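Postdoc handover notes: sequence design on the structure in folder B. Input tokens:
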């Protein structure tokens, strides 16, 4: 095994890994802030959502693939490749002529970002002794939090003072610096097989299964009755067929993408399960809390942006704190503490209403974020410690994938539930004595997209009682997210309780 890196080289490699995560996390948020300006320039409003979906889907697919490849081939070369792909997507994205080209390049960026996320954790694990991994990986979660705060701000500043292509060009100097430091200072520390065999059929089946599953939830959760759409049913069938093919391929492959035997390892299965359900809850809350703030509590977009900051800060603070304590506490106690804190915070969201105080709201969401920070880091360490060093790539990427999958499915399921509840509430309102105060097309528009309930062209003409009734309906609609999140937090807690007390790294 190579000798440990000198402290300066180790620090620069860690910074390079953090830069890679920062770029990938920042990119989705900074582009989101710039998209209204980009659409105004390029047109193609009907393709607006696909700019984000293409990035997310490509990232989800590439995560497990890069993780497996890192167990077979050079981590350094793969990391440089992932960073290069991300930059290859970024540079021409600033010169696109239409939305179709932008969507294609966002998919390229997503492939690179997925590789960056998977490989950054692997690089950090390789350069850090096991006793220090919690502390150094806590820094990655801190970077996530910083990205969530800076992304919208930077996006707004760029489109205000610079041409919008700079939201993509900003990636170039930072990405190039990360490539330089990794190529110059990073040294491989894990043994790789002398002869690698790639499971192409498994990779194809896994990619098809992931894409069809995530697209089904993206489409089905947006509208009332979306799950009955022919395209969603077709995607569901394709998902089942793809994962059956994946199961057969993994049983036959000499070196499978995801060895099925890993699911018999309690630390691997239970920790990934806890990560899946906790991510289901936290991303659902993150997606629909702004709707509650603006629609039920009557806050302005600027106010809700500030009020969502404690959730990101809590997540970062929780991960940093967990990283410093986990070596003494152990992974299981840290996971249990995070699950209890997150579940308690989620339970308190059920007390939110139109008159909820801002300090109380901020405290609750901050505590929920702290709990997620503990869970995300402690379960990652559990998954890594449950497998051998040779399988570090699969272990790390499986956890990242579980989190991405949980968040996507959570938002899709909760979106469907919210739309259904809002549809019921709007029908009841339209049939009540206040129905005459509502534009006739409002109920139809809400069934298509719940955000229409907040559009000024519909709400500015409402009377005081009608506005109060609308806010109450929105509050009841979003409360189903709070109940659903509480349920899955409880499931995550059960998984954490079942975790083995200790997971010793096998040689």
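Designed sequence:
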């Amino acid at each position: 095994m190579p000798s440990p890196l000198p402290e300066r080289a180790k620090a620069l490699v860690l910074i390079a890994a953090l830069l890679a995560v920062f770029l990938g996390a920042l990119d989705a948020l900074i582009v989101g802030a710039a998209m209204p300006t980009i659409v105004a320039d390029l047109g193609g409003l009907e393709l607006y959502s696909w700019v984000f979906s293409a990035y997310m889907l490509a990232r989800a697919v590439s995560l497990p693939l890069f993780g497996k490849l890192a167990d077979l081939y050079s981590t350094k070369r793969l990391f440089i490749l992932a960073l290069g792909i991300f930059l290859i997507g970024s540079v021409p994205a600033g010169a696109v002529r239409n939305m179709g080209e932008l969507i294609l390049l966002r998919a390229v960026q997503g492939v690179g970002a997925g590789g960056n996320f998977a490989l950054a954790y692997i690089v950090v694990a390789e350069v850090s002794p096991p006793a220090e991994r919690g502390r150094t990986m806590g820094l990655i979660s801190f970077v996530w939090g910083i990205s969530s705060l800076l992304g919208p701000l930077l996006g707004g500043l760029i489109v205000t003072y610079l041409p919008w292509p700079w939201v993509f060009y900003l990636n170039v100097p930072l990405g190039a610096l990360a490539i330089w430091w990794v190529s110059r200072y990073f040294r491989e520390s894990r043994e790789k097989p002398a002869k690698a065999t790639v499971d192409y059929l498994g990779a194809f089946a896994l990619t098809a299964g992931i894409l069809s599953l995530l697209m089904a939830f993206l489409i089905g959760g947006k509208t009332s009755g979306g799950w009955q759409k022919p395209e969603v049913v077709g995607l569901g069938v394709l998902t089942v067929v793809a994962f059956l093919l994946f199961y057969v391929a993994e049983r036959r492959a000499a070196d499978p993408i995801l060895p099925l035997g890993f699911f018999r390892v309690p630390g691997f299965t239970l920790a990934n399960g806890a990560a899946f359900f906790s991510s289901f809850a936290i991303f659902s809350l993150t997606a629909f809390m702004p709707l509650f703030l603006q629609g039920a509590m009557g806050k302005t977009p600027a106010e809700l942006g500030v009020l969502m900051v404690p959730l990101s800060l809590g997540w970062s603070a929780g991960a940093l704190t967990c990283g410093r304590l986990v070596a003494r506490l152990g992974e299981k106690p840290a996971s249990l503490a995070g699950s209890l804190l997150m579940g308690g915070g989620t339970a308190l969201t059920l007390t939110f209403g139109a008159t909820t105080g801002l300090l109380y709201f901020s405290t609750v969401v901050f505590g929920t974020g702290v709990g997620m920070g503990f869970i995300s880091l402690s379960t990652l360490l559990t998954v890594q410690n449950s497998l051998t060093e040779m399988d570090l790539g699969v272990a790390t990427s499986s956890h990242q994938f579980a989190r991405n999958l949980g968040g996507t499915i959570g938002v899709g399921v909760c979106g469907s539930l919210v739309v259904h509840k809002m549809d019921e509430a709007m029908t009841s309102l339209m049939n009540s004595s206040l129905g005459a105060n509502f534009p006739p097309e409002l109920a139809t528009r809400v069934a298509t997209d719940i955000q229409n309930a907040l559009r000024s062209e519909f709400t500015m003409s409402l009377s005081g009682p009608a506005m109060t009734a609308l806010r109450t309906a929105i509050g009841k609609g979003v409360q189903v997210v709070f109940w659903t999140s509480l349920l899955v937090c409880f499931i995550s807690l059960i998984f954490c309780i079942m975790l083995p007390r200790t997971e010793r790294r096998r040689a």
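Context for whoever picks this up: Confidence is low (pLDDT under 50) at residues 503-507. Don't rerun without checking with the PI first.
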